[in-house]
Amino acid sequence: MTNQDKHVAELTRDHSDHQQLLDQDTLISVKNVKKYFPVKGGILKRTVGHIKAVDDVSFDIKEGETLGVVGESGSGKSTLGRVILRLLEPTDGRILFEGADIAHIGNRKMREHRKNMQIVFQDPLASLNPKMSVGELIEEPLLVQTSATKAERKQKSIELLEKVGLRASDRTKYPHEFSGGQRQRISIARALALNPKFVICDEPVSALDVSIQAQVLNLMKDLQDEFGLTYLFIAHDLGVVKHISDRVAVMYLGRIAEIAPKDEIYKNPKHPYTQALLTSIPVVDTGEDTIQREKVKISGELPSPADPPSGCTFRTRCPFVHDRCAAERPELKETENGHYVACHLYT
Ligand code: ADP
Ligand code: MG
Fold first, then answer.
1. How far is the CA of 215 from the centre of ligand 2 (A)?
2. How far is the CA of 51 from the centre of ligand 1 (A)?
3. Could you tell me which residues come within 8 angstroms of residue 72 by beta carbon, excluding any fewer than 6 positions away?
4. 318-240-95-26 Cα dihedral, nearest 10 degrees
5. In this structure, which residues have their CB less than 5 angstroms from ion ligand 2?
6. 20 to 30 A from 5, CA-CA: which of 22, 157, 161, 178?
7. What are phi and psi of 68, to 5 degrees?
8. Tens-place pLDDT, residues 253-304
9. Cβ(346) to ligand 1 under 6 A?
10. Which residues of 111-254 form beta strands (DSSP E)?
């Protein structure tokens, strides 16, 4: 082997090692995922069309990372979350969790992964059974999924209650005895009972008073650090995910319009829709946060996902629309390091 060959071999080896490291880093990888809901019509209830709730979405989330997912109501965020957890069957695409494709595996195999993947919903009152005590609610996953003894379950629920800022004595109370913020803490404790790796947070603070939102967000951040959790954090505005996210994906009509590291999204938003979402966040003067942004206003309603506009689905509301937008769908393309945008202004 000549020196040159050795050098080449060394480079290739380094590269493959690096590649492997990158792959090991990735906890979940969503590839070209679609979820279409059939629309039935006529007296025969035939399928006459499809609601394209999630339409070709791809991203990776690294271990310990938080990906914020933002978009207005109806953009497909909850459907995406439910499909990733297989609470809904994907129409198409692959979902790799710790390298295993879970998009189409059977229930029994899915059960093993489910321990590692949990969800916290927006409305804890709706997701917590009112007839169960707090202790029963938190211990239920342990009862169903593990062989923990009664004493061990009790011990764990007390531990979790304390972790989320409640008291051991709260075990015997019922959900209605708590405030909204406390109920969300109970949901979080329940979601953490099985020591999951990955938690989908579907607008967990949207129903809470603004004064309580920051407390619950801080709790979630602390729990993430303590337990090494990976989050997919859904919200309908960019304000909520700002402090918790490492990267942010902006969804519009079932597709990702832009995805970038957090600082990039807030300081250098590229997609007109992201710019418009940022315009609508009240500007808080905290020094570093005040960035002079050109105001981008969008008008009109979100078009129906059953009949999305041709080409760029945002074009009907976009202040920068041009000929190409109706004719051609913009692909999500990398413009800078890690910053992807689906918009013809950048191609
Ligand atoms: P978001 O969470 O961003 O508000 P959703 O994922 O709830 O959006 O909904 C995306 C689109 O899919 C909406 O148009 C919604 O009406 C539709 N949708 C959601 N769930 C169903 C369902 N089970 N059947 C038919 N359409 C649905
Ligand atoms: Mg939703």
1. 22
2. 8
3. 236, 277, 302
4. 110
5. 78
6. 22
7. -80, 140
8. 999 999 999 999 999 999 999 999 998 765 544 444 455 566 788 888 899 9
9. no
10. 117-120, 198-202, 230-235, 247-252
